[in-house]
């Protein structure tokens, strides 16, 4: 007899609808400020995410199609064809056609919290738990820390994939165990959506976990007949993964094409062991799954990472239920599947803190990923499945009392040790141990932080003790049948939700709508009087303490900036300016000239800037949103910067020599452009006679992101060169007087066009061919997945049913 057949199980009429209402209310318990008009913009969304999405929406409306190029940061870069930083093709992105970017971002977080709960509920029902148990497991997953706390750092991509994860397992279960061919089409759709999310790494982890589950279903599932051939379901599952990848090709193909020009190219700054193991989950932070204050939450964090703006809190009650469900999971054979997935991805989350990651690092492309700690979402998923089965045991009155007593007793003991100050001594000992290998300044910061966290740890331990008493008491009441039916289910839901909500309520970055928060100040107002295009230099990197506007937020105000915040900017730009996140050459006025810097903003007056005059400041900012400093000073270039310029000569130089030459203050930017010695164009080497100036003048007659037209006045009998203040990428296309020419990379990073004598007009357009190829593959894959889903619904089940 299954759990749903027990006399103590409860299932209402219209169970899915009732469950959906519960998950909506649970999501609202964290997202209720949106009902008053507030929006979720914090962490990475504050630094860049909102600005990119707002730019996308504004430009999309202006030009009538999806923009591919963003000239507002880092000298220009692809808007979305870079590794996993933007949700252009994810379904919620299309809401930006009707709603503002800040509202869409907020609504997307809400939707995916709801989807996470509902998807886990559906999976647990398919695994044959009772309605109440599936409801409890869904609430547990919806409110697990590694998912719900992502609203604080603004990591929407991680939440999107985690919310879809139970659906991947559900569709495989229906396809392989129940023999529903349509399940393979649904699985392909889930994989495609995960890959279209802003987080390829989380999707990569999901596909590996789905592979493990597939092998279990085919070879070890006790509910699948062993005399059936494994070849057919394995072939179908493999084909579904390929089809899922096909659904994502509209974005994946351009990314694969463009990644070689970013810091994730082979040998780039964002590759290698040190990069891949950064932001892993330290082993000692497993304790935060029970007691998040052990390592300190948010500003109280101390540990081996420089900061932490999320939590892995699973919940004391959820862990207790998971322990109670362990026996059921083992008897049903599920331990081999979800136990393996949970344990494997816990090891992955530890990253370089265990030797295991040396093996994991050998997987394809793993050298390009970091922050392995995000893999913990799959461990949390397995725990919540176990908790669902544990809730089933409690609701059916079959609780293992010994296991319950030990679980609550151990967690209660941890809480008592925290209240009594014993855990504080342990944390100080750990901090002393891990700080030995840290730089001196950071070592002292860590030691100071662990001491400052003492009162928070004590308060958190007291909260945990109350959770054990109240939540444990509710479990005991249900077990002893003091409450039954709907009331019993409600008691467990309240125990789980109350525990996790009391922690997660501390995570969130709510502000007033962008129309009220990202408002112009006197400095941005003055700069916006200048017609585009131009750029602003706002210090970053090694002189970032002088930064005025946070990250890429000048883009939020419609002002292009020289630097910004992204991580996957053009590697040639980074190298030209002296290295990613350092940019030692950012003070070079030669580079300011080449990139058409018209304004400089700093957080305090400077003695003088050659060629610039002070316009205003210090200006105090009454609205801090989007600003890094409380005030700013604006300087303007004396002469008009040139977005396009014609130079009379080019010289081929080895790339190793270009940067040092270009940043030299004496480099004649209006006389020479330096080309790589591997360029296909005809140009002499260095040390040639200085040419006479060219009489040809360039004028930009039209400019929108990714498209421009340049008129040329005057004539020169020599070939000349048009240098443009935007980064070169191979996907720029140019015509000179209607004849196609190949754009070149000049002065190490800049878009450069060779001009024949007598040239009159140049047109340029940025367009990635792989985008169009990927679009057709995506459309075809979507149609095929839909046909499989529909055909499977009306067709016969396979012999594995």
Let me know the number of strands.
19
> Helix- and strand-based class?
alpha+beta
Report the mean per-residue pLDDT as an integer. Answer: 91
| Helix content estimate | 40-55%
Distinct helical segment count: 26
Q: Any low-confidence stretches, pLDDT <50, length ≥5? A: 1-7
Strand count, sense and barrel status of the largest sheet are: 5 strands, antiparallel
Briefly summarize what is shown.
This protein has 26 helices and 19 strands.
Question: Helices and strands in order, then pairings?
Answer:
Blueprint: H1 15-31, E1 39-40, H2 43-63, E2 69-70, E3 77-78, H3 101-126, H4 131-142, H5 145-148, H6 156-177, H7 182-196, H8 200-219, H9 231-247, H10 249-258, H11 273-277, H12 316-331, H13 335-350, H14 356-360, H15 376-395, H16 401-419, H17 422-434, H18 440-452, H19 454-479, H20 485-504, E4 510-511, H21 514-517, H22 522-527, E5 535-537, H23 571-576, H24 589-594, E6 597-602, E7 612-620, E8 631-637, E9 644-647, E10 649-653, H25 655-662, E11 672-676, E12 697-704, E13 707-713, E14 720-727, E15 732-736, E16 739-741, E17 744-746, E18 750-755, E19 761-766, H26 769-794
Parallel strand pairs: 5-6, 10-11
Antiparallel strand pairs: 1-4, 2-3, 6-8, 7-8, 9-14, 12-13, 13-19, 14-18, 15-16, 15-19, 17-18
Helix pairs in contact: 1-3, 1-4, 3-4, 3-6, 4-15, 4-20, 6-7, 6-8, 7-8, 7-9, 7-26, 8-9, 8-13, 9-26, 10-26, 12-15, 12-16, 13-15, 16-19, 17-18, 19-20
